[in-house]
Amino acid sequence: MNKAKHIAIIMDGNGRWAELQGKKRVKGHEEGAKVVKAITTYCSHSKEIEYLTLYAFSTENWKRPRLEVEFLMKLLDNYLKKELQTYLELNVRFEPVGDIRAFSKSLQKTIRMIEEKTAHCDGLVQYLALNYGAQDEIIRAVNKLKNIEGNITTEMLSNQLDCKHAVDLLIRTGGDHRLSNFLLWQSAYAELFFTETLWPDFTPKDLEKIIKKFTKVERRFGGLK
Length: 225
Ligand code: IPE
Ligand code: IPE
Ligand code: MG
Description:
By secondary structure, the protein is an alpha/beta fold. It has a single domain (about 5-135, about 165-215), classed as 3-Layer(aba) Sandwich (Undecaprenyl pyrophosphate synthetase). The protein has seven helices and six strands, in the order βααβαβαβααββα. Strands 3-4-2-1-5-6 form a six-stranded parallel sheet, sandwiched between helices. α3 packs parallel to α4 (about 105-115). One 3-methylbut-3-enyl trihydrogen diphosphate (IPE) binds near residues 12, 16 and 57.
């Protein structure tokens, strides 16, 4: 049976969830943050899951209206400060992936603070993808290697990425079937699952059902059974 050691989720559908209820899009982000906590808690209790990577803000999301971007930044700052205690209680290590230098100094400080305060936690690792784009991640990795003599190997490049672990199970909520620049390198052999469920409606039970299906898939990695 397959083991879902690394689960990655494209948390999509917050805006539509809110609009369907006649609410402002940002309400959907607020609700989505609660689901981040529920899913992280569920994963932290699993013996099998070691890494949970959540797509929270892409390098393309800056194109959104300024007010929505500002709201997301504030929500992130508040979430991290409020949930520090939860990270510690669940023994979850928090690590950002993505280029956080684009964020305000104070948000960067919060991110670094949570990273440091949870550095000793040795349970689940929660990678939060913040100003993350897979192409940007790969380019930054290549640039770190550009002065090296000789050929670059797969391993050398992999070691320079923000997230160094291959994805086993990649899930996208919200009904679209695309990767939107998420973990392109790490998902080379990921099993892809798409669900119509909008992120604020996604529950640990839904995740459990997907994991169950995932365990039965025949993964061949290019070989034969
Ligand atoms: C995902 O939900 C959250 C972020 C991208 C920050 P969306 O905000 O993309 O919600 P939809 O896809 O518009 O419904
Ligand atoms: C992907 O969702 C990014 C996050 C979930 C953070 P988007 O809503 O930004 O993706 P597109 O624009 O539909 O591809
Ligand atoms: Mg979306």
